[in-house]
UniProtKB/TrEMBL annotation:
Signal peptide coordinates: 1-24
Protein name: Apolipoprotein F
Cross-referenced Pfam families: Apolipo_F (PF15148)
Listed InterPro entries: APOF (IPR026114)
Keywords attached to this entry: Signal
PANTHER family: APOLIPOPROTEIN F
Any one of the GO BP annotations: cholesterol metabolic process
Taxonomic lineage: Eukaryota, Metazoa, Chordata, Craniata, Vertebrata
């Protein structure tokens, strides 16, 4: 003969479970790092960490200006991909490089530039790549006299896989192409930089640099230029002079 086991539950707890819907019960907020891009992005989604600048070979050896520019673009790519934990971690690093106010303004300005489209100015990819390379080589630091990537490393299988995934997400891809175009240009991977600079990415980068130097003609440029840390601003101004062939450029 089978016995029936009775489960005794305190009356207050029983009433709570019966009267409170499941949706009303508190759920813990996620505190750990994001692990995946949206499954809809690809049949083979990659981790959010693969979008971080440090996943790019040799990134940690780049001078502060390249790290800041590449980081800005990839920070926005991470946000579009829903990688909130990585966004905040990277943003704190950008604050240290460029300052809090300037970084926050640049983040929003870059978003406005991307959403608003770009003028068909046909920015010279060759000239900008040359300027970026020269700027990186002349930055002070122990690594300034050597090339950070070998020519074979300009074609990185893991990074190329990430590029193919984010290419299915237009907003993520736009920022990612900008970030990697700047990264490859600083690393003297000219062909790869030109490939990533298509579809307006280089125009977007040019607009960003002009705003950082206070030459954009709008109020955002004035705010950014005034708030940007002096060393970072000087590096951007020098870069623009390289772009225009050492011609005198009037800065505010």
């Amino acid at each position: 003969m089978h016995r029936v086991r009775l489960i005794v539950m305190p009356i207050p707890l029983l009433c709570f479970l019966l009267l409170c819907p499941a949706d009303a019960m508190p759920h813990p907020e996620p505190t750990g790092p994001s692990t995946m891009l949206s499954p809809s992005a690809s049949s083979h989604p990659l981790s959010c960490r693969a979008l971080l600048p440090k996943s790019l070979p040799g990134f940690s050896h780049l001078p502060p200006l390249p790290q800041f520019l590449v980081g800005l673009a990839l920070r926005n790519a991470l946000e579009e991909a829903g990688c909130q934990a990585e966004v905040w971690a990277l943003q704190l690093q950008l604050y240290q490089l460029g300052g809090v106010e300037a970084t926050q303004t640049l983040i929003h300005h870059l978003q406005e530039l991307q959403q608003g489209g770009h003028a068909d100015r046909q920015v010279s990819m060759d000239a900008l790549t040359s300027a970026l390379q020269r700027s990186a080589w002349e930055q002070p630091g122990p690594n300034r006299v050597r090339r950070w990537l070998s020519y074979s490393d300009c074609d990185n299988e893991q990074e190329q896989s990430m590029h193919e995934v984010v290419g299915q997400l237009p907003a993520v891809g736009a920022y990612y192409n900008l970030g990697t175009a700047l990264y490859y240009a600083f690393q003297s991977c000219s062909d790869k930089a030109k490939e990533r600079g298509k579809d307006g990415a280089i125009d977007l980068g040019y607009d960003l640099l002009m705003a950082m130097a206070g030459l954009s003609g709008g109020p955002a440029g004035v705010v950014i230029s005034a708030a940007l840390r002096p060393a970072m601003k000087a590096g951007v101004q020098r870069l623009i002079q390289y772009y225009y062939g050492e011609k005198e450029v009037s800065f505010p």
